[in-house]
């Protein structure tokens, strides 16, 4: 959830609704939110202002594409492999 362009509040409400274990939710939240912000900060530090402009413009689309490819890959492995 921390990497998707969907507002994080949607996932927190859904986790409560579906009675997700709080410790698991907290660990996954910390890991994913930290990962996303650390990744963006690292890219900006390495590549500078040009990277920040690119991320501001295209990050949501890149995350959507990555998510689709990731889910598609797992589906392909499960159903074709």
How would you state the average pLDDT, rounded? Answer: 85
Span of the ends, CA to CA: 27 Å
Overall geometry comes to globular
Q: Low-confidence runs (pLDDT<50, min 5 residues)?
A: none
Strand content: under 5%
Radius of gyration: 15 Å
User: Oligomerization state of this entry?
Assistant: single chain
Helices and strands: which structural class? mainly alpha
Helix content: over 70%
Task: Report the strand count.
Answer: 0
Question: What does this protein look like?
Answer:
This protein is mainly alpha-helical. The protein is 84% helix and 0% strand. The chain has 3 helices and no strands. Helix 2 crosses helix 3. It is globular, with a radius of gyration of 15 Å. The mean pLDDT is 85.
Characteristics:
globular; single chain; mainly alpha; 0% strand; 81 residues
Summarize the structure.
With about 80 residues, the chain is mainly α. Helix content is about 85%, strand content about 0%.
Can you lay out the helices and strands and say which pair or pack?
Blueprint: H1 8-17, H2 22-47, H3 49-80
Helix pairs in contact: 2-3
